[in-house]
Structures are given as C-alpha cells and as structure tokens.
Amino acid sequence: MTGHDHAVHAPGSKRGLKIAAWVTGAYFVFEMAVGLYTGSVMVIVDAAHTFSAVGGVVLALVAMKIARKPPTARQTFGGQRAEIIGALMNGAALLVMALVALTMGAMRLQSPIELPTTPMFVVAAVGLMTEVWLIALMYKDQKEDINTRGAFWHVVQTFLGSFGIIAAALVIHFTGFLLIDPILGMAFGVMVLVASWGILRDSISILMEHAPADIDVDEVCASLQAIDGVRDVHHPHAWTLTSGKHIFSGHLRIDDDSSAEQHARILDEAQSLLVNSFGFYFATLQLETFTPDEAGAHGLDLARGQEHGEHQDHGPGNTGSRETEQ
Fold first, then answer.
1. Within 39-81, where are the H helices?
2. Rounded to 5°, angle at Cα 212 from 211 and 217
3. CB 265 within 8 A of CB 304
4. CB-based contacts of 309, cutoff 8 Å, min separation 6
5. What's the pLDDT tens digit per position in 63-97?
6. Reported pTM
7. For domain 217-307, which CATH number applies: 3.30.70.1350, 3.40.630.10, 3.10.450.50, 3.50.50.60?
C-alpha cells in the first residue's frame, strides 16, 4: 500500500487560521447584532455567510489537528472524516440561514420598512477592513495548504458581501428606494443557497463513498488491465477519504504460471499508475491466479455488474484473505 500526503501544511498556516477564526467570529456577532437592530435583510444574509466563513476556518483548524493523529485499531483511517462531517453540518446551517433570509426578503418586499443607513455603512466598513486584512494574512498560506485555501475563499466571499451592503445603503440613502435591501438580500440569499447545496452534495457524496467526480473507474480498470500479465480486473472500488485524498482497491487476476518477480513488477506498475496517473492517495491491490467465488460479494463487484448490464455506484468492498499490499 502506498500513501502520499497531498496537503502540505505551511508553518504559518495554523497561526493565520487561528487569527482568522477569532476575527471572523467576532465580526459575525457584531454584524448579526447590527442586522437584527436595523432589520436589513442584506446585513443579516451577509452575517449568515460570515457564519459559514467562521465554520470554514474552524473546520480547517480541526482538520489540520486531526490529520496529525495516527490511526488506531478502532479508527484505522484516523479521524480524517471529521472534516466531512463538519462540512455537512456547516452546509445544513447555511441552508437554514439562506431559507430564512429568502423568507424575510419576500415579506419585506410586501411591507418595506425604513432602514437606518449609518449602521449599515459602519458594519460594511468594518467588514471590508477585517476582510482585506485577513485576505492579505492568508494569501500566501492558501497557495501551499489545501485547508487554508477553502477558508480563504470563504473570507473572499464575505468580502464581496460587504460591497452588497454598501450598495444597498447608498441606494436607500440617495434615492429612498427601500426595496433594494430585500432585493439584494434575496439575491445574495440565492447565492448562499447555491453554496450550501454544493457543500451538502459533496459531503453526502463522500459519506456515501461514491467514486470521486474526477475519476473514471472504467478508465482506471482499462489501464490496469493493459499492464502486461494482468488478465482482468474485478472488485474495483474508488472512494474519497477526505478532501483531496482518493483511495482505490481492486483485485487483479494474473497468469497462473507467473513468477514472484512478475508479481512484484505488476504491483509496482499498478501502484505507480494509480498514484502518478490518477492521483490516488493510496491503493490496495490483491493479486489472484484464479477468481474466487465470493458469492456473498457479487453485488459489490462493478466488473460483474457490467457483465450483466448493471451499473451501480460503489464504496470499498471486502478484500479477501490473500491480500498483497505494497
């Protein structure tokens, strides 16, 4: 079995994320308080998105900490799936906030209220200052660290939300057009709704152990079968452990009279193919000179399903008793 860590943690990443968590969290409390005080839908919606930014930063910190913990006999992959569970919760919270914002906006379209623009300008100005500082603080680290990169783009999106608040406040101040606040608030609410759906969709896909979206399992199998000495590939399984870490397992049937040296060559070529050509984090391969019956696991074999015209999505399956790892 071969493993390669694709997420490089820069020394300054953790410090930058901690600062971002505290600053963004404090700004969320301030912005939500102003939003509730003024009744501005745009401010409340942007506060909801700021909340997601806090969640993204905290998740990055948690993932960074858990990633350093070694696996145990009970948690053989360690706690790396915690990042996905957290993302699912973050997406669900974001979905609720987006729906609340859309409901509030629809109600305000029917009954607009007078909004004090000064607090809106203040909260947007504070937001711009903190977000510009955080973007500058995290810019270098996000180039080297995949966790920081996700948190960085959360902050960038809240930065754009602050401009929406300023736009609404300017229109109200100079024209008195009160409907601009619920209109912009609902527009940004739709953006948050789309973002929440993306987070939920990707999290559920990983937890359901679907094949990674950027991996064609049929192409992987064809490439493995093209290796000299491999007669067929069955029980192929590809799934995502956590963000950016894809795993593959499969059974390779080889020639009956192949030697130990040929076994080693086939494993070496297969592992190199999976890691270097398809970007798998690690792979487990089982070499077989015959195909075991495995009657209880036929439903998990993609290759057998294709022979019968049955295409199904799969997760990791049983590896059998004669497993060879490199």
1. 41-67
2. 55
3. no
4. none
5. 777 777 888 898 888 888 887 887 888 788 878 87
6. 0.73
7. 3.30.70.1350
